[in-house]
């Protein structure tokens, strides 16, 4: 199933690279990404649309990402894009 995971992290060099590397090592394809920094440029929010096959993998992935240095929070979001556009 397609899922959107949102990660709030410190806006530092290498954090996004470590996060995408973590997904790559688990053979998870990033279908789309949205990354934005806060106005004070201290934090960044990244949203990734990924495919997760099993519910257990979903929760495990959330725990693993949350343990990363400079990651402040991790949340799963609803896939509004898919619902609004009518695609699967």
UniProtKB/TrEMBL annotation:
Residue ranges annotated for the ACT domain, each copy included: 4-76
Gene3D superfamilies in UniProt: 3.30.70.260
Domain of life: Bacteria
Cited Pfam families: ACT (PF01842)
SUPFAM superfamilies: ACT-like
Protein name: ACT domain-containing protein
